[in-house]
Design brief:
There is one protein chain. It is built from five helices and 19 strands. With about 325 residues, it is of the alpha+beta class. The chain has two domains: about 25-215, outer membrane lipoprotein receptor (LolB), chain A (Clam); about 220-270 and about 300-330, 2-Layer Sandwich (Phosphorylase Kinase, domain 1). It has a twelve-stranded mixed sheet with strand order 7-8-9-10-11-1-2-3-4-5-6-15, sandwiched between helices. The chain has a seven-stranded antiparallel sheet with strand order 12-13-14-19-18-17-16, with helices on one face. The N and C termini lie far apart (about 80 Å).
Length: about 325
């Protein structure tokens, strides 16, 4: 009799929860898994804030995805005339830099190889894969805290993902360091599921032309001076030991040498603008999201461009995570 009463009480609790519309963590995860299977595509807009350097940097992000593997992610600084676009179509993965009239092509499985804070399906996958994810429900939202799958996941191991309770659309993402300090925030708006697309929406030339109407090619990049920037992130036991300035055809190249328990070199020079029709450069390595720009990560080096300057960080001793951390910290730093 006692067992029967306990069973009856348990059933009443389940019925009460169901009547109130409360879903368990398993219910929400199953719903998300099903939504991912049925999703044919979406459009979304977001603002992304990077808490690196001396002050926060905010970027506007526009995301398009068409099932199964077409992507268009437009990343634009909200205060400066610069942008980059990640594009994936039948021909590969591309990074478009309209201000330099350049496109870079990667042979990569992006975005499946890492967490992506602005891609809905990546966030859902992070939730599904983390069997130890923390779950809470508020009046309007479902909130998950999960582990990340970033290349530098030791530096950014956690994220808080907030979903709309009615639509399961993403509301916000907070990416945190090991001490749970928020270093990257994405706030979504205008999420439209099952959006319509034309295949040409993911064409490289069409998107480059459209992007250059908003961010024209930098005509005077070679005439501008730039100040050398140094990483604000630190590697224990490593310090700056040498600075070299070299005259090159289009200006100067600056080489910063760091030595200690681990060593690396940071090279900075003006980026070259393609004067003819935009061309595509094959790149060895993987595209890596630095927050403020998209870089190329390969064996022993990471390269990126920002505000008309090309950066190369090379090391035989640093891990990929450490190189990404240093590259992220160069943006927004005090100038030398």
């Amino acid at each position: 009799m006692k067992k029967f009463l306990m069973l009856l009480a348990g059933l009443l609790v389940v019925v009460a929860l169901s009547a109130c519309g409360t879903k368990s963590q398993d219910d929400v995860v199953k719903k998300l898994d099903g939504k991912l299977d049925d999703l044919k595509g979406y459009k979304a807009k977001a603002t992304m804030t990077l808490q690196m350097g001396t002050e926060p940097q905010t970027y506007n992000v526009e995301i398009w995805h068409k099932d199964p593997y077409y992507y268009r992610v437009n990343l634009k600084n909200s205060k400066k005339d610069q942008s980059q676009m990640l594009l994936k179509n039948d021909d590969g993965v591309f990074v478009l830099t309209p201000a330099l009239n350049k496109s870079f092509r990667f042979q990569s499985d992006w975005p499946e190889n890492s967490s992506q804070a602005y891609l809905y399906e990546s966030l859902v996958q992070d939730i599904i894969e983390d069997k130890e994810a923390k779950f809470t429900a508020t009046k309007d939202h479902y909130v998950f805290e999960t582990k990340t799958r970033y290349q530098n996941h030791k530096m950014l191991p956690y994220q808080e993902i907030k979903l709309n309770k009615k639509t399961f659309a993403p509301v916000s993402v907070k990416v945190m360091d090991p001490d749970r300090n928020v270093l990257l925030t994405v706030k979504f708006s205008n999420v439209k599921f099952d959006a319509d697309f034309d295949k040409k929406d993911f064409d490289i030339q069409k998107n480059m032309t459209a992007a250059q109407l908003q961010v024209p090619v930098m005509a005077d990049v070679n005439e501008k001076e730039f100040s050398v920037k140094i990483p604000t992130a630190e590697i224990p036991g490593v310090s700056l030991v040498g600075e070299k300035e070299i005259d090159i055809e289009d200006g100067k190249r600056y080489i910063l040498t760091y030595e200690g328990d681990k060593s690396f070199t940071l090279v900075e020079e003006k980026a070259e603008v393609a004067t003819a029709q935009a061309y595509v450069t094959p790149v060895q390595g993987e595209p890596v999201d630095l927050g403020f720009t998209i870089g190329a990560l390969s064996d022993n080096r990471i390269t990126w461009t920002h505000e008309g300057v090309e950066y190369t960080l090379a090391s035989k001793n640093l891990t990929d995570e450490e190189m990404i951390m240093l590259a992220r910290s160069v943006q927004g730093t005090a100038e030398k």
